[in-house]
Amino acid sequence: MNKNELFNALWDNYTAMTPSAKLIKQVFEERGEIVENDHIAIRTFNDPRVNIDVLAAPIKKMGYVEKGTYKFEDKKLLAHHYEHAEDEHAPKIFISELLLEEFSEKLRSIVSSILDQIPYSTIDMDSLLLKGRLWKLAFQDYELLRKESEYASWVYVFGFCANHFTVLVNPLKTFKGLETVNTFLKEKGFKLNDSGGEIKGTPEQLLEQSSTIADQISVEFDEGVKTIPSCYYEFANRYKMPNGKLYTGFIAASADKIFESTDVSLVEKVMGKK
Ligand code: NI
After folding, report:
1. CA–CA distance from 154 to each of 131, 212, 267 (Å)?
2. What is the pLDDT at residue 196?
3. Which of 42, 128, 134, 174 is least surrounded, with the fewest CB atoms within 10 Å of its CB?
4. Ligand 1 centroid to 260 CA: how many Å?
């Protein structure tokens, strides 16, 4: 599998769970835009069987190298971002992991029980990112996880996949900056994550980001079908560094707020708004 095949397969899985992302890409293209993907994000746990290093191994074989490291104190996460060594237009890959040792025994035992169900000996670990969820779901456990970590509950339901794709705003020809993109999306009826303001980051930080709130989809649990937030679409406007090149990193404080795009309480709050 080369990187284009990987991104195409990830996009197919992602848009199956996030129909609004497919729709947004379509309305951009109807305006004559070519949509360039700035980055994707992957979520996991720091268990040695599925941690960042495990998920990063296949992308390193595709020519990606580790660049930035980020810590999220409140959400108890560690993240790395990867860039392609030769192709500067290749999307960046952001992988975060939940620091399990900082959570309760209950949370750790639920996570450990789902990771035990992965068929490590028969599965192609290089395509783990395309496998989604490889375990059974109990709504009771989802709710228990959600009380401690919204992030843990999201990975519990969706497993290994792209949590979001990101439209790079810079090359868009018919928009001037992120605010005009946001206005257009709202006019089209899409709902944005307004936690910490619609635009996270500043030109001085060299990166501005916004995102939709996650779509809501039906998921089958042992106890029956429930509707819960899936994935969101992100928009990034990057600024030039003193050397004239676009900044390629991430801002932890902004990412922290973007993470909340899958939060049930935020999604419900925003969807309640007309
Ligand atoms: Ni992102």
Report:
1. 15, 16, 13
2. 87
3. 174
4. 11
Average pLDDT, the chain: 96
In the reported structure, the alpha carbon of residue 143 is separated from the centroid of ligand 1 by a whole-number distance in angstroms of 25
For 217-233, what is each residue's pLDDT tens digit? 999 999 999 999 999 99
Residue 88 CA, ligand 1 centroid: distance in Å:
17
Distance 236 CA to ligand 1 centre (A): 8
Model confidence pLDDT, tens digit, residues 97-134: 999 999 999 999 999 999 999 999 999 999 999 999 99
Q: Are 131 and 77 in contact (CB under 8 A)?
A: no
Res. 46 pLDDT band, cuts 50 70 90:
very high
CA distances from 20 to 14, 68, 189, 257 (A): 10, 30, 10, 20
CA of 149 to the centre of ligand 1 (A): 19
Distance 133 CA to ligand 1 centre (A): 21
Q: How far is the CA of 30 from the centre of ligand 1 (A)?
A: 24
Q: How far apart are CA 1 and CA 8, in angstroms?
A: 11
Name beta bridge partners: 132.
160
Task: Compute the distance from residue 153 Cα to the ligand 1 centre, in Å.
Answer: 19
| pLDDT value of residue 273 | 54
> Which CATH number is 76's domain given?
3.10.180.50
52 confidence band (pLDDT: 50, 70, 90): very high
For 155, the domain range is: 3-270
How far does the centroid of ligand 1 lie from the alpha carbon of residue 224, in Å?
A: 31
CA of 40 to the centre of ligand 1 (A): 6
Structural domains counted in the chain: 1
Distance 131 CA to ligand 1 centre (A): 21
Pairing between β-strand 232-238 and β-strand 162-168 as defined by DSSP bridges: parallel
